[in-house]
Amino acid sequence: MKILAEHVEKKFRQEWVVRSFSFEFESGQSYALTGPNGSGKSTLLRILAQYSLPTKGKVNFLQDNLSSFEAEQCHSLVAYAAPYVELIEEFTLSELISFLIQLKALPAQISLDLFQQYIELQPDKNKFIKNYSSGMRQKIKLGITLLANKPFLFFDEPTTNLDEKAKKWFYQKIKEQSNRLIIIASNEAAEINLCQHRISILDFK
Ligand SMILES: Nc1ncnc2c1ncn2[C@@H]1O[C@H](COP(=O)(O)OP(=O)(O)OP(=O)(O)O)[C@@H](O)[C@H]1O
């Protein structure tokens, strides 16, 4: 599978954030999207995930035979973790996992125990998500994204709020991926170095 971006441009009022971005992303590969604060990494990441529309140009998700997925299928191909993608704060972790399974955002076989083992956290099962620490919430978001049965994984500043142990956990989980297409928007050297390819957004201004 591929993500094909063709002549993508994005303008907010008078500000061009991305100019003429064309790129082919392939399954089994990982890509770091880099650039200084405010350069447009998150904006471009959302467009590539088809969460928002470009001002000009287009993004297509392609099947192995290179035909495009139908627009209504695209959403089901993406798992996305970012500081601006919120968890449902009023749920406990157990309720959150059940809800995500119902939405098909997590596979049916994921249990609370399995999830906790995967994220290497044993938080209080009855605690509301809003009462978890910011690092724990971030790890939960990353766990949900990694465990989603989706071919395209998007991460925006994934190790924000994580301690060293949790960062190493995340790096290891990314290294274990082989068939998925991974895009990480980041300025962190360790996250950028995890990826096989590096794209500087400043080249598309
Ligand atoms: N909805 C919006 N309306 C107006 N301007 C926006 C909007 N979203 C983003 N911008 C502007 O687009 C530019 C790029 O923002 P973006 O968040 O994509 O950058 P970034 O590279 O991800 O930054 P950071 O590293 O700080 O997270 C900024 O000038 C920002 O203010």
Note down, in words, how this protein is organized:
This protein is an alpha/beta fold. It has a single domain, classed as P-loop containing nucleotide triphosphate hydrolases (Rossmann fold). It is built from seven helices and eight strands. Strands 5-6-7-3-8 form a five-stranded parallel beta sheet, with helices on both faces. Helix 5 runs parallel beside helix 6. It is globular, with a radius of gyration of 17 Å. Adenosine-5'-triphosphate binds next to strand 2 and helix 1.
The parts where pLDDT drops under 50 for at least 5 residues are none
Largest sheet: number of strands, sense, barrel closure: 5 strands, parallel
**Which fold name is given in CATH as the topology?**
Rossmann fold
Mean pLDDT: 94
For the record, what CATH class applies? Answer: Alpha Beta
Q: Which strand order spans the largest sheet, edge to edge or round the barrel?
A: 5-6-7-3-8
Q: Strand fraction band?
A: 25-35%
Small-molecule binders: adenosine-5'-triphosphate
Structural class of the secondary structure composition? Answer: alpha/beta
CA-CA gap between termini: 27 Å
| Rounded radius of gyration (Å) | 17 Å
Order of helices and strands: EEEHEHEHHHEHEHE
Tell me how many strands there are. Answer: 8
